[in-house]
Amino acid sequence: MEKTLNRIHPVSDPEATYFLQVSWEKDLGTGFGIILSDGQCAWTGTVSEAEISREAADMEMNREKYVEELKKALIPGEESAGKYNFAVS
């Protein structure tokens, strides 16, 4: 299992710091687990392969392209630094 941890400052509350952990087996396209924490509380969830396909279809986006965008948004890297904004609600 692979995991990444990313510190985020959501646009909905720029003074706050959250930690976003994403874990997956093969790749994000087969589904993944997610943990969001503000350092005091943590929220967990899972995203299934079917949910990824459904979301891509809802957005009228090629599934592979959608998975690539997920990778850029959820897994820290130089190519995605500063490109994605998060809102916490």
From TrEMBL:
Limits of the XRCC4 N-terminal domain: 17-88
InterPro entries named in the record: DNA_repair_prot_XRCC4, XRCC4-like_N_sf, XRCC4_N, XRCC4_N_sf
Keywords annotated in UniProt: DNA damage, DNA repair, Nucleus
Keyword Cell membrane: no
Subcellular location: Nucleus
GO cellular component entries: DNA ligase IV complex; DNA-dependent protein kinase-DNA ligase 4 complex
Origin superkingdom: Eukaryota
This protein's name: XRCC4 protein
Gene: Xrcc4
